[in-house]
Each structure stands twice: as C-alpha cells, then as structure tokens.
Amino acid sequence: MTARRICVGAIAGAFGIRGEVRLKSFCAQPEAIAAYAPLWTEDGSRSFTVTLTGQGKGGLTARLSGVTTREAAEALRGIRLFADRDRLPGLPDDEFYHADLIGLEVLDSSGNRLGKVHALHNHGAGDIIEIVGPGRRSPLLLPFTRQAVPTVDLAAGRIIVDPPEGLD
Question: Are 61 and 15 contacting, i.e. CB atoms less than 8 angstroms apart?
Fold first, then answer.
C-alpha cells in the first residue's frame, strides 16, 4: 500500500441477497465515503464505485460495482477500502490522517527517543497512540490529546509527547 491512498472503510459482510454489503466508514462524516470512490483494496488489485443504500446495524449498507450476489459480497468480508489521497478533503492544522502518523519518530519533551508510532486506536473514548521501540517490553499507549501529544511535526517526521509521570 502506498502513502497516496488512505484507508476510509471496511466491508463488514453481506447485506441481503442481491450483493449489497455492510460498510463500516472511518470517515468523520460516514456517508462521505461514497464521494471518495473509486475505493481500492489494500493491494490495489480491485476498485469499486459505491452507492449507499441505507443504514444498517453498526454502519452503512451499500452496493459496490461488480458485486451482484450475496456470495460475492460475503467473500469481501474484512476487506479494507482505500481512497486516493487527492480525493480526500484537506485537514485543519490540528487534525491528521492516521496514515500520516504511523512510522513517525516519537520523542519526549526532553528530546529522549521513545520509539515510533505503530498504530492509532479508537475504542469510542478518543484516539490512543501506540508507540513501540527498542528496549520496550510492551507498547506505550497514550491518549492522542494536546496535553499528552503537544507537538506533531509531519515535515520533520516526529512527534513530541509528554507522558504522565511513570509511563515513559
């Protein structure tokens, strides 16, 4: 996967018998996912146009181009969907695409290297940044807030964090 595509959703399974899918959108406005089409599989081997058909349990329902049977829709379960970066909206200075943060070097406020951003998670209460690095037995997990992460410098490829006492 190249940095020119951003993960915007995932297929949760089939919906109905005519090839519709249950679609989980990772977009701030879930319905916006259709506007970013074509959406690509992670390996770039397939692309889909998206027609939203409604709301389902835990997400949207949609038709994907070329998917006409329940079996074809079910075969796509778990597939993550990516949009070309230039189709996505620009972000304010204090917002970031997760893909831009993964791999950045992480330093504490004293300049000590803590590791690199491995992932960002959101379990409903806000984003959590996961930092891994040499000498760490387990990842460092910090809330992705201004207090814990005061500086994100994409141009320099680094993040400055201020972990609570005892967490670094």
Answer: yes
Domain ranges of the chain: 5-87, 98-161
Report DSSP letters for 94-143, one per residue.
T---HHHHTT-EEEETTS-EEEEEEEEEESSS-EEEEEE-TT-SS-EEEE
Q: Do domains 5-87 and 98-161 have the same CATH topology?
A: no
Tell me which CATH code domain 5-87 carries.
Answer: 2.40.30.60
Q: What SS3 state is found at 85? A: helix
Phi first, then psi: give them for residue 86, nearest 5 degrees. -70, -10
77-116 confidence digits (pLDDT tens): 999 999 999 999 888 888 888 888 999 999 998 998 999 9
**Local structure of residue 72 (DSSP, 8 states):** H
CB atoms within 10 A of CB 124: 4
- Dump pLDDT digits (tens) for 16-48: 999 999 999 988 889 999 999 999 999 999 999
Residues 74, 20: Cα–Cα separation, whole Å? 9
CATH 2.30.30.240 fits 98-161, yes or no: yes
